[in-house]
Design brief:
Order of helices and strands: HHHHHEEEEEEEEEHEEEHEEHHHEEEE
CATH architecture of the largest domain: Beta Barrel
Strand order of the largest sheet: 2-15-16-17-18
Oligomer: single chain
CATH class of the largest domain: Mainly Beta
CATH superfamily of the largest domain: L,D-transpeptidase catalytic domain-like
Distance between the termini: 63 Å
Number of strands: 18
Helix content: 25-40%
Strand content: 25-35%
Shape: elongated
Radius of gyration: 25 Å
Largest sheet: 5 strands, antiparallel
Length: about 400
């Protein structure tokens, strides 16, 4: 039996951590089977690896990484096994590098385990959303969390591809995937799309109001499938979209409500916290939000305007003074103001320091006016640690 290879010191022999019991249903076994082949190779069990790889390629004939592993196994049966993808490196080193990155990504995501006590820090309150998609772009993983009384519970997970140049989209054509909180806008059937997009596409609302405020440009960021001749794409391959295999895309459909705007949180590396920590952060923020409500109802203009960050509000140095004129007029003319708000989503905004996005339904009533509207606010902590509003508008 020939010696197996190690991809690198940071990529030890695979030890699979099963999370099937935590999911709503069993995932496509492709990834587990692929990593079983890898484990057999790295344990120098090439006969077993050969058997597993043959079965994998038969069941998933468009798996390029499966074919690459099988090629390595054939080489290793007759000579000492070299580095991963030796033949690919001869034909095209960039393809071998991409598949190498995929192997690492598929293995490394198992370092994050979501259980009853560990939840994503970004999902402070899922509000009225049945499901939220959370992209961990550092680990090439797309999670789906189900809403259980406002708390997130893992429902599904998928290997994911992002932009060729990574994450953090700034300008049109930079081939990066945006970081932020977005919502699915609609569905595009595969019959309306080129083969590149696979089983279909769900566009998201990039650029959102925060992106526009920071002068980020671009458009056409979609969740979509893969071309028919590829089971999946390597971790960095798209023009900025986030991409899953067609099998996974077809499974994702059950969790997405395009007409209801399923939330999509695209993050760098996802942080996990306990439910207790999540609740403490949520309650701390909601205290500030309730203070804002009380300040408005009190008709105290000075108290009200202190909750806003005048220098950052509206992403412009003079936006707050212009906006405040209208608010002052309303408050000074009203005999009373009553608010009733219902939070529909509360998220720690990824990629920004101490920033929270809150979406809510607002019922407003004064002695002269009544209104029900969907609103959103962005809040940031100031240097003194106090939450202040930097944007307010319709959602």
């Amino acid at each position: 039996m020939r010696a197996g290879w190690q991809l690198c010191a940071a990529f030890p022999v695979f030890a699979f951590v099963s999370i099937v019991s935590a999911l709503d249903r069993s995932p496509d076994p492709y990834e587990a089977r692929l990593l079983s082949v890898l484990s057999a190779i790295q344990s120098a069990e090439l006969e077993l690896a050969h058997e597993l790889a043959i079965d994998l390629v038969e069941d998933y004939p468009t798996s390029r990484i499966g074919a690459a592993l099988l090629g390595d196994i054939y080489a290793g049966l007759s000579a000492p096994l070299g580095d991963f993808g030796a033949q690919l490196k001869i034909d095209g080193p960039e393809q071998a590098q991409g598949l190498y990155q995929e192997l690492r990504a598929r293995k490394n995501w198992t370092n994050v385990y979501w259980d009853e006590d560990l939840v994503p820090a970004a999902l402070l309150d899922m509000g009225d959303a049945p499901y939220v998609m959370l992209g961990d772009m550092e680990h090439s993983r797309l999670y789906v969390f189900r809403n259980e009384d406002g708390y997130p519970k893992l429902a599904a997970h998928y290997y994911m591809t992002i932009g060729l140049k990574g994450m953090g989209k700034q300008v049109e054509g930079d081939r990066r995937t945006p970081v932020g909180v977005y919502h699915v806008t609609h569905f595009i059937d595969d019959k309306e799309l080129p083969d590149l997009y696979g089983s279909g596409a769900y566009p998201i609302d990039y650029p959102n109001v925060f992106d526009k405020g920071l002068k980020r440009t671009g458009y056409g960021i979609w969740l979509h499938g893969t071309p028919s001749d590829q089971y999946n794409r390597v971790p960095y391959a798209s023009d900025g979209c986030f991409v899953v295999s067609n099998r996974d895309f077809e499974d994702l459909v059950q969790y997405i409500e395009p007409n209801a705007g399923t939330p999509v949180v695209l993050s760098g590396e996802v942080e996990g916290v306990s439910k207790k920590q999540l609740a403490e952060t949520r309650d701390s923020f909601m205290n500030a939000f309730r203070d804002w409500e009380l300040a408005w109802e009190s008709l105290d203009v000075e108290r009200y305007q202190e909750i806003y960050d005048a220098g950052k509000f509206g992403f412009s140095s003079d936006a707050f003074s212009k906006w405040l004129v209208g608010k002052q007029r309303v408050m000074r003319a009203a005999k009373f103001i009553r608010l009733d708000t219902t939070v529909t989503g509360l998220f720690v905004y990824p990629g920004e320091k101490d920033t929270v996005l809150v979406k809510y339904v607002q019922k407003f009533e004064s002695d002269t006016f009544k209104d029900v509207s969907h609103k959103q606010m962005y809040w940031q902590r100031d240097n003194a640690g106090k939450w202040r509003i930097i944007y307010e508008g319709d959602a």
